[in-house]
Amino acid sequence: MPASDDLLELADLCASKLELDGALRHVPSFADAEEAWEDEYEELLLAIHEDELFAPVDIQRQEELVEQIAAALPEDRRALIVELADNHARHVWMQQEGAYHVGVAVGRRLRLRTPEA
Q1: Is pTM beyond 0.70 here?
Q2: Do 47 and 7 touch, CB atoms closer than 8 A?
Q3: Taking all residues of the chain, what is their mean pLDDT, rounded to a whole number?
Q4: What percent of the chain has pLDDT over 70?
Q5: Do 49 and 56 touch, CB atoms closer than 8 A?
Q6: How far apart are CA 51 and CA 46, in angstroms?
Q7: pLDDT tens digits for 26-69?
Q8: Residue 43 to residues 61, 64, 108, 116, Cα–Cα distance (Å)
Q9: DSSP summary character for residue 21
Q10: What is the 8-class DSSP label of residue 50?
Q11: Higher confidence at residue 11 or residue 54?
């Protein structure tokens, strides 16, 4: 199981790929930034999955299960399970996006601090 320092080291590899110097007017979205650090972020996620609390996620299997459940439901109820799965995906994405922005905000605040004399 990776330690916090290990995860921070992997996250630093991601952050090092972002261009945050100069006249930056906005921080890229998580989706845009993820493209810049795709391999490093995958390594970070794999390290997190080593923790017993975070089992690997198989999106394809999740979609298959939703389809199987929907097929077993009466016609007028099938849309409910699809809506539930879509809502869950949006919720997870929202939490990731929020965590990313909190991380960026903390990083910017730390970066802007002036050293005490």
Answers
A1: no
A2: yes
A3: 81
A4: 83
A5: yes
A6: 9
A7: 677 778 888 888 888 888 888 887 776 777 778 899 899 999 99
A8: 21, 26, 24, 36
A9: -
A10: T
A11: 11
**What's the residue count for the chain?**
117
Contacting residues for 95 by C-beta, under 8 A, at least 6 apart: none
Task: Give the CA radius of gyration of the chain.
Answer: 19
Which residues lie below 8 Å from residue 27, measured CB to CB, with a gap of 6+?
20, 33, 101, 104, 108
- Using an 8 Å Cβ cutoff, are 89 and 97 in contact? no
Cα 108 to Cα 16, 77, 104, 113: the distances in Å are 13, 47, 6, 9
Structure tokens at 48: 């997190």
